[in-house]
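lol ok so funny story. i was supposed to be doing the assay writeup but got distracted and ended up predicting the structure for this chain instead. priorities right. anyway since i did it might as well share w the group, maybe its usefull for someone
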Amino acid sequence: MTIVATILVALVALEHLYILWIEMFAWTTKGREVFKGALPDELFEPTRGLAANQGLYNGFLAAGLIWGLTIADPLWSLRVQLFFLLCVVTAATYGAMRSSRSILLKQGLPAILALIALLLR
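and the output, tada:
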């Protein structure tokens, strides 16, 4: 189960690096495709700064998960990974309540599966 947990945590980190890229560097291009219908087309350019800020936070989540994967001490590695996965689940839950329910499925579910795998290892 340790390998499964590591893979799932790494996938959650990669997902958040992808979100960072969209929100910080491709908001008016790829962001338009990904968030089509969620935001009127004319608002992408004026919201670039807001999106970049959100992307930065997603980057912090990814960095924390990657950090957790690289810590040699098993107990601290587990604690750091659990903390950042719980942050992802919290953000996904809030996003689902305030923005789109699909966020819980797209971002929350992978983090929940990683949490379960970590706790069962």
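Residues 2-120 form one domain. DSSP finds five helices and no strands in the chain.
back to the writeup now i swear
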